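Predict structure. Chain length: 180.
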Amino acid sequence: MNCSQLLNRTLANQLVCQTQQIAIGPTGPTGTTGTTNIIPGAMKAFTLFLDYSTANAISRVYVPPGLFSPANPTLAAGGIFTADQGTDLIFLGSASPVLNNTAYPFAVGINCSGYISAGRWQPILGGNIGPGVVNYSVVNDYSVNLYGLDLANINGASVAPKPTTGVAAGFLATITIFYV
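Prediction complete.
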């Protein structure tokens, strides 16, 4: 290839890039690149800590601040709850909590971990997240239903021991909900 052919090819590529608006830098537009957030809203994650009275009955929940709408100041502030909170947080005696009036409209994923009898935290098996095991559904914006949070799916149905120190002392499971 001689110099003329190389120059022609370079010029042609530059013109294609400019017409398709795919060039950035000295050969393309010098203005802003536009929005960098393709999905509306930044990804948010909230981790709930769960305690159980039996392997399939949640008895206590730690809710992080900011998960629920400010319309319910008690839940919005977060804290440890040992009873259902109206229709916004329903969990007591169940392995399928219901969260209504959350601060963010749409849950896009979950992750779960459990405290196992060997005395350590570990993530649940990947095969334990999905239909028929640990899963969730979003029927309406600002609401999420969690299913399958019985300890058989999380830590092998172990209700003891419980951690005695650390952030999650006294709890047996966590579930993280990801929102957009």
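Summary: The first strand starts at residue 44 and ends at 54.
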